[in-house]
Amino acid sequence: MELHYRITGKYNPDIHLIGSHTITVGIELYGDGVPPEVTSDFEKPKLKKNLPHLVLVDSKGKLEGLLIRG
User: Which tens digit of pLDDT belongs to each residue from 2-12?
Assistant: First the structure.
């Protein structure tokens, strides 16, 4: 996965378009639960202004409740 994003990042995209199936499989493979919150979680990160947008396509609502910390 690291190699994939390293290569695609060289294209300087404006948007990353990701489907709900990709997200749910990623959660199944790599999601070991939500770690406890720490103080730094509440600090606004300093982001580069040229970062691409992330668009999650979920027309059937499969991600409902899966992306929420709590």
Answer: 898 788 778 88
Give me the DSSP letters along the chain.
-HHHHHHHHTT--SEEEEEHHHHHHHHHHH---PPPP-GGGGSPP---TTPPEEEEE-TT-TTTTTS---
Contact between 15 and 57 (Cβ < 8 Å)? no
Query: From CA 12, how far away is CA 5, in angstroms rounded?
Result: 11
Distance of CA 57 to the CA centre of its chain: 12
Tokens of 7: 């290569």
Cβ neighbours of residue 41 closer than 8 Å, sequence gap 6 or more: none
pTM for this predicted structure: 0.57
